[in-house]
Automatic annotation (TrEMBL):
Gene name in the database record: LOC109471074
The protein, known as: Suppressor of fused homolog
Protein origin, superkingdom: Eukaryota
Compositional bias per record (Basic and acidic residues), positions renumbered to this chain: 292-312, 341-356
Region named Disordered: 1-32, 281-312, 329-374
Length: 489
């Protein structure tokens, strides 16, 4: 079913919203709090009330509405996006801005039409809604609608991937958020500074604010962590300020505004490591010929595309195992190094705990045999596209040096490559057999006495403007070759 373009309408508030196809509930599930067919659904009402506490003078703001709702076959998961006018706080240097709030990532209806009702104790739907605070242009009297389209795109990602967006996440976009010539081409996620978490009859709802950032600021968040960069943005008024506003006309990065902030990032990486645990990339790997010839002729190596089932198993091991008990998720867009798997919880909170490739006590733990039998190799050749490959210095210095892991997952689903530290528990690779695979998933263990040499040799990859590809690095005595190839390879 095709839907028309979003249209502007006043917020229905407490007016009647007819149910276009009322559901009796989910069979076998406890019924949620009952809603009369002609009253505002309680999930909607909970968000409206939270907004009214901030905007008592705007009971009926403009609202972008999908003509055909998602639950009627439309393409847009967000039923509504409200747009409020916020005067800011001149005394704190916070300018006037437009405040956008989504409706639809949480459970608005409680009748199973979009989200399964699981009770009030857990998250409502995905447990969050999106917001944006966009600085007003001089003389602007109506809010632009492009932020609503951006929010719909992010919502589609969440619905399609089941990956929630959390404060501290970053999203590679590679285009101006408003399709202009702006330098603001990527996003960080933060808690909305004024819309606090609320409880609805369907569960908890957090408000996650989108902050537009430059490529340099995104790279810093990738190399260090999102929360650290958010704090820097809060302390630079023109780059966001205390309420983390997005200014599409901002022409300077925080590092151009204050060069000393780059040193803050470098110190953070050196002392805390990086929270980026993986990216989608164009990548592949193969066993080197001299190693393959040493195999017994009866042993046949089977290489095939990662099936959806295997992909889910790898994700499960990465989430519950590689990332240990720290908590993790996935968020990201774009090409090359665009899809980012980000640890949501800073590892600094528990320095003594080691990263692990296998979890304990989980009834859902993936059994080793489920991803085919493991095999070891004496030499491997890893191939990665340029954009993702430029992260290798960070992988070594910000991840492996701190006892962590990093995964490149091929965008076509053909392979996955995980670099691991000897301190990562449960890996199929170990110091006696540093190259091991399970089906199309390769693990490369870099011993600590080899790591410094790798860091030194790969450091030039950090200078992306001067990097000419293809480029190959080979450590013959270690049996490791890494090739950096063009992005269109």
């Amino acid at each position: 079913m095709e839907s028309g373009p979003p249209h502007l309408s006043p917020v229905p508030g407490t007016e009647a919203i007819p149910h276009h196809h009322p559901h009796p509930g989910v069979p076998g599930m406890p019924m949620p709090p009952q809603m009369m067919p002609m009253t505002t659904p309680v999930g909607l009402q909970a968000i409206y009330q939270a907004c009214r506490r901030l905007y008592a003078d705007q009971p009926n703001p403009l609202q972008v509405t999908a003509v055909v709702k998602y639950w009627l076959g439309g393409p847009d998961p967000l039923d509504y996006i409200s747009m409020y006018s916020n005067p800011g706080d001149p005394n704190r240097g916070i300018p006037a801005h437009w405040h956008y709030v989504s409706f639809g990532l949480s459970d608005l209806y409680g009748d199973g039409r979009v989200h399964e009702y699981t009770g009030p104790e857990g998250p409502s739907g995905f447990g969050f809604e999106l917001t944006i605070r966009l600085k007003k242009e001089t003389g602007e009297t109506a809010p632009p609608t492009w932020p609503a389209a951006l929010m719909q795109t992010l919502a589609r990602y969440v619905f399609q991937s089941d990956n929630v967006l959390c404060a501290g996440d970053h999203v590679s976009w590679h285009n101006a958020l408003d399709s202009s010539e702006s330098r603001i081409q990527h996003m960080l996620m933060a808690e909305d500074p004024l819309l606090q978490s609320i409880m609805s009859p369907m569960g908890t709802i957090n408000f996650i604010q989108i902050i537009g950032v430059t490529a340099e600021e995104l790279q810093a968040a990738q190399r260090w962590n999102g929360p650290g960069i958010l704090e820097l943005l809060r302390n630079v008024p023109v780059a966001g300020g205390p309420w983390l506003l997005t200014d599409m006309r901002r022409g300077e990065t925080i590092f151009e505004k204050d060069p000393q902030l780059q040193e803050v990032v470098e110190r953070g990486i050196e002392t805390e490591g990086s929270n980026l645990s993986g990216v989608s990339a164009k990548c592949s790997w193969e066993e080197m010929e001299d190693s393959r010839e040493e195999r017994e002729e009866s042993e046949e190596t089977v290489r095939q595309r990662i099936t959806p089932h295997e992909s889910e198993q790898i994700k499960a091991e990465l989430r519950r195992g590689l990332m240990g008990q720290h908590g993790s998720g996935a968020a990201g867009f774009g090409t090359g190094a665009g899809a980012d798997w980000t640890d949501h919880v800073n590892h600094n909170t528990d320095r003594e705990r080691k990263d692990s490739l296998s979890s304990s006590g989980s009834t859902e733990e993936v059994k080793p045999g489920e991803l085919q039998r493991s095999q070891t190799m004496d030499a491997v050749h890893v191939k990665i596209n340029k954009e993702a490959g430029t992260l290798l210095p960070l992988v070594m210095r910000g991840r492996l040096k701190h006892g962590r892991h990093f995964t490149f997952k091929d965008v076509s689903g053909n392979s996955a490559i995980t670099f691991v530290s000897p301190r990562v528990m449960g890996a199929i690779a170990d110091e006696s057999h540093p190259y091991a695979s399970r089906g199309p998933w390769l693990q490369v263990l870099i011993p600590e006495d080899f790591l410094e040499a790798v860091i030194k040799d790969l450091e030039e990859l950090s200078s992306t403007e001067e990097l000419v590809v293809p480029k190959q690095y080979r450590w013959r005595e270690k049996g490791l070759t890494i090739s950096i190839l063009p992005d269109d390879w």
